[in-house]
User: Which sequence fits this backbone?
């Protein structure tokens, strides 16, 4: 085990995968010589050469499109979209091509491809460095969508994503790159270097996709969260004293329905938290799933705490961000009903 | 500049609309043999003029002339003729089958058979095409079974794509034929990625990208050019300029530039035009481009100048937007007729043999069709299972799809 | 009143809008001389000239992008995406630009723009002529999303969309172009020419966005549907004899929550039907909204009947399409619980 | 072709990385005055060479020479100098303010001031720019209040964008400055649409599109070229080639072609390059392009050749990827210095007056800054209301946003 930040853990996953498998190639904007604007790929070009880690032209459609061609050839491209906010030009290649290649060719061609992108806000990045577009991906059949919340998961899930035979969208909550941010933006954040989840196994240790993790057991209410919101939920539980069971979904699709069901059947209550815009966000799917599967256990309406249906604002960032106060209020409300 | 006249919007118009007399007199056609054949390591900047000319081999008298006339044996030419005739006969039968309600949709190649048939013979096994819906000649010429193509068209129980795809959206890795997408342009940049992968892997295989004239307007065309140029990818970038994009003439996609091939100049890519109705010319140019790619000289952009003699698809009626006799006036002639006349001229073929061959090919196609129809047609006879719709979305079916499949009753 | 098909009604809406307002310009692939592959814009170029109705290059990003520029200039572009399946290359311009221009410029620039596209399956169009991508739009703050289900609504809602000061996504269920298809694909479809909803008011009569329509009153269960599914739901109600209250949402965003709430509070049961892929489809949002707002009225779990989480298949079209049998089964299930 | 050597991937590299000695000896710079000035109705095909040269007016001795040297009075030149100096001083203050935590982010123009400042003066009121984040000179030169820019940068209570946008993402319709997007390239094609709208409306106004060298790789660049070319839109398409895109040198975007301007050739668009550090040259070329557009001769693609002397943004440290002294070695010099020397040479300016002007401009900027800071800085003092975040998503707030605003407590 080595103590790592999330950036280091992601870099390590790349390193391990590239060392083990020649087919793994890594590219994206500023990814090669410089090592990425968040430095996730720093050092890889030097170590593995320019044809395995390189800078790409600023063209997200081209980055995804060429990666699909490479995956069809037999390589295992791992590409970076500099910010999740910039994925839309690549949307057609992702939704119409990567997601459907195996199915439409009946397995004649496949698309083992990982598309990494920093996601979420909390860094005063304004509307184009803060978005959480996961619902676009979960609505596209043929994609898996992963959101790690700590260095250990980041490494294990990224290794699983790279090993996966199908395209995986890998969303990295950038506010967690250095430590477990809980939404208290006026307080310092502990570094992963001093956190148990910063303790990362060496080598090729995979965390399977599709398995959620209960980060806090509780009996009062189930909180479904992922990414940064896991820590916000933990803070809210601690601050309200409500005995919440917090589930870090880790993989949004395929979703770990068994874990969710077992928990909601136990608690009878459910709060869903995400940073993305509310309407048609992934929380809607979670809410629908919970009510379809746990209707008779539910003692109160499910509450969604999410970003608002507005662009992500710059100055009003903390009014937009679903912080511990809003999550705490939802926990109280759901307990009072 | 304050008293300038009002601006106006320029909307390009084709030379001829229904009711007009087709007139291709503005269309400059160099004589066969006129265009030089540069070495494959030529600097793209030194052959800029080739993007404004047309490489042609077969002249009016059906002779093969000039520096691009070489390399194909009589046997190969006869084979080429057969491929094109097969494709045309195949198309004719499938158009009828669609009209008979045996399938939902079909797209033909009428007038464009040389492009894909000749190109196919210039690649090596292992190379990969990223075709559009109008290059079935790549399969026919590579001896992909017609019956299997028909099984796909009929979405029947033997359809290799299990009924999932629209008719003619074939896929065959073994035949160097990438799965066709219904979304225009996407495959153009994927081909570049495949070629980059080959280069990354130290392989010797190359890829070929395909796009229509209208679809060059799509953004993925640009992505392909940027990546191919930057990484010097071993790819052949084919534009099939058949003059029309459904009801829209090529001027709407091409804008103010003389030719589509000229698009390559903005990227330093070797760019040429070829008479797409001249089997020998297409083959020679494809060979040259393949050699360039394989020897590490990078991408070549080829504009195949041809004419879509039929409707866009079975859903289209071209008489609504172009003169009925425009196809007849098309100055580059018919690819089958031209190769046939050449073969007769060199003494390798005759009118009689041609008529015999036509009949025999029709029989072959009919036999394949009968066999395919024994496996069912769309909605008739055995069909791909509904269960199969849930398979293959992922390699391993995740729980939510298992649940849905069960809910669906399979 | 004139009896019209949906195509004719849409054409008439264009005609009225173009006649009344010089700022209305219409373009798209094959839209000009030919009048569109579904002939919605036939005749407009002849009547209004080539600079008000014209063919566009095949570049959806460019079609949307230029329209945004035109809207910012002060025109009112109405653009056609040939099939909704082809909207993805234009996604960045829609989501990042059209949807956010007013907000990000604080009203300095606005984007009154209508993006029309034929949507839905049932025509053996395979995976690229059948999709229903509405959830992508409802998740993007700043867009309105409209789905008419009959000629009268098509005209009135399109006129409202063109008059709207903000970008509107206008999804036309292509299976309804000629008549009210109810999913019984083995039976002939009545033409709109013989249907009361084919009776279309002349002139500039607007149907306001954001108002649902109850197409069938009932007391047993509320069915939330839009587009083709309205007729499927009607058939299912008739065939099962269940007294369903069927709500044609017409506008997905802004959603008419009042009408939904009143109905579910009355019936205590809810079935949601759409053709799009289930996971993260708009049905998820509807389900979440209903359970948030009507939790204490609900007597049974809300059921979603939707397309499956697979690409839209060609041969298995009727297995994918949520037809009257599946909707009827859901009605029975929801009544039995 | 079976025994070909393995393919390899070409990954372009800049001439110089940290530790290397900068070397621009490959960079061919024509002497000032060398490039012809064709009439504005020139056929784009006749000036293809201009895409491979560089229009320059100011020579080594700071004289204005050649056919592009004309038109600007001493007063106008002094004004130009002042605009560039203002922009530089503004940048310096705001960089510091960002370091002091008064805002989250800033992007400067160091070395590129001539491009936007000179261009702004070539347009007419009513024309519309679609800028990127590095053309604030368009506002400064059009006398947009610096204090308002700072209010935006500080996201304070007087921010015209109500705190919604990232610093420097200005918008001012009245100043012909379209709302800046954080997504690269999108505005390039929107500008074409605006120009088409002007033509559709029989207006006389034109638009100007802006994009960086790296961002020309984006697909929207292609969309813009296709639409501008097809409809002959009255638009000026500006590429600001400042050699770098964050850490990526221009070769990654440009690929195998000599210049970015050459991209226009594939579309039949008049394409020229200009010395972006030469105020007079930029102004003259912009005037020429504007006249072409306004007179209905269609789009012009201008590559402004310049150098990003500073970091990409306050989040960037260029020493990690390029030689520290690369900027100093940049052969086109500094735009302010060059115009200053020219003005001194023609007797309109002096070192003393320059020093005075610098001090005075600094004072002006400081005064504006003080006034802006009185309205608050990011997170300090009065701020845009959270309530305002919900406003303006639509013209009329729909019920779901009213509910959310209430839920949020506003
Ligand atoms: C992204 C996308 N947009 C639009 C379409 C609809 N469409 C199908 S074929 C076609 C015309 C293509 O013309 P061209 O590229 O010239 O090819 P051709 O049919 O002539 O071979 C159009 C607009 C599509 N399939 N995909
Ligand atoms: C669609 C999109 N992709 C990526 C980015 C991230 N990004 C911001 S600026 C930049 C570099 C742009 O370089 P260039 O176009 O040369 O402009 P310059 O900064 O040099 O003025 C990148 C990659 C973005 N803003 N938008
Ligand atoms: Mg065509
Ligand atoms: Mg740059």
Assistant:
């Amino acid at each position: 085990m080595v103590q790592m930040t999330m950036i280091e853990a992601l870099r390590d996953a790349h390193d391990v995968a590239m060392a083990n498998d020649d087919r793994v190639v890594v590219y994206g904007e500023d990814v090669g010589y410089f090592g990425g604007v968040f430095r996730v790929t720093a050092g890889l070009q030097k170590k593995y050469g320019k044809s395995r880690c390189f800078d790409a032209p600023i063209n997200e459609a081209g980055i995804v499109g060429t990666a699909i061609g490479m995956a069809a050839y037999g390589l295992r491209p791992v590409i970076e979209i500099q910010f999740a906010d910039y994925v839309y030009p690549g949307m057609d290649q992702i939704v119409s091509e990567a997601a459907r290649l195996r199915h439409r060719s009946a397995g004649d061609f496949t698309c083992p491809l990982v598309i990494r992108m920093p996601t979420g806000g909390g860094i005063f990045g304004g509307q184009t460095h803060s978005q959480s577009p996961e619902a676009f991906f979960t609505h596209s059949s043929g994609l898996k969508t992963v959101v790690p919340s700590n260095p250990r998961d980041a490494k294990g899930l990224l290794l699983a994503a790279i090993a996966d035979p199908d395209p995986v969208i890998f969303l990295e909550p950038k506010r967690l790159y250095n430590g477990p941010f809980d939404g208290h933006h006026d307080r310092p954040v502990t570094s992963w270097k001093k956190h148990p989840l910063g303790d990362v196994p060496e080598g090729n240790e995979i965390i399977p996709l599709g398995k959620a993790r209960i980060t806090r057991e509780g009996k009062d209410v189930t909180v479904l969260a992922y990414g940064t919101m896991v820590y916000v939920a933990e803070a809210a539980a601690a601050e309200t004293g409500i005995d919440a069971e917090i589930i870090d979904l880790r993989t949004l699709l395929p979703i770990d329905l068994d874990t969710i069901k077992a928990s909601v059947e136990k608690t009878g209550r459910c709060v869903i938290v995400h940073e993305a815009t509310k309407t048609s966000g992934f929380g809607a799917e979670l809410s629908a799933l919970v009510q379809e599967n746990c209707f008779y256990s539910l003692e109160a309406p499910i509450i969604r705490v999410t970003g608002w249906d507005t662009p992500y604002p710059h100055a009003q960032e903390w009014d937009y961000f679903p912080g511990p106060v809003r999550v705490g209020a939802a926990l109280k409300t759901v307990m009072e009903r | 500049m304050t008293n300038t006249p009002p601006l106006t919007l320029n909307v390009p118009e084709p030379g001829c609309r229904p009711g007009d007399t087709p007139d291709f007199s503005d269309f400059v056609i160099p004589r066969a043999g006129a265009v030089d054949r540069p070495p494959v390591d030529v600097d793209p900047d030194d052959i800029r003029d080739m993007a404004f000319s047309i490489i042609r081999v077969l002249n009016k008298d059906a002779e093969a002339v000039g520096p691009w006339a070489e390399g194909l044996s009589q046997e190969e030419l006869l084979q080429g003729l057969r491929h094109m005739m097969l494709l045309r006969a195949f198309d004719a039968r499938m158009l009828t089958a669609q009209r008979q309600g045996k399938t939902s949709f079909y797209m033909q190649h009428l007038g464009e058979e040389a492009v894909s048939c000749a190109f196919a013979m210039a690649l090596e096994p292992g190379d990969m095409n990223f075709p559009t819906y109008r290059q079935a000649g790549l399969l026919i010429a590579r001896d992909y079974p017609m019956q299997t193509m028909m099984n796909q068209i009929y979405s029947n129980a033997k359809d290799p794509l299990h009924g999932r795809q629209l008719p003619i959206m074939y896929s065959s890795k073994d035949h160097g034929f990438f799965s066709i997408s219904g979304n225009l342009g996407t495959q153009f940049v994927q081909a570049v990625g495949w070629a980059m992968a080959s280069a990354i892997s130290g392989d010797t295989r190359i890829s070929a990208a395909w796009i229509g004239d209208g679809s060059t307007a799509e953004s993925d065309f640009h992505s392909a050019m940027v990546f191919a140029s930057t990484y010097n990818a071993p790819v052949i970038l084919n534009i099939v300029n058949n003059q029309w994009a459904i009801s829209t003439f090529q001027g709407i996609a091409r804008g103010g530039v003389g030719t589509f091939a000229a698009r390559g100049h903005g990227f330093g890519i070797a760019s040429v035009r070829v008479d797409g109705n001249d089997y020998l010319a297409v083959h020679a140019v494809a060979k040259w481009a393949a050699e360039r790619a394989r020897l590490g000289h990078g991408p070549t952009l080829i504009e195949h100048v041809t004419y879509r003699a039929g409707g866009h698809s079975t859903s289209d009626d071209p008489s609504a937007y172009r003169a009925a006799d425009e196809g007849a006036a098309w100055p580059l002639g018919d690819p089958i007729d031209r190769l046939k006349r050449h073969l007769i001229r060199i003494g390798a073929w005759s009118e009689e043999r041609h008529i015999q061959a036509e009949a025999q090919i029709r029989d072959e196609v009919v036999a394949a069709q009968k066999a395919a129809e024994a496996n069912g047609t769309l909605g008739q006879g055995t069909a791909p299972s509904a269960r199969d719709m849930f398979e293959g979305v992922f390699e391993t079916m995740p729980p939510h799809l298992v649940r849905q499949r069960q809910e669906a009753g399979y």
Remarks:
- The first helix of chain D runs from residue 74 to 99.
- Residues 58 and 64 of chain D are 5 Å apart (CA to CA).
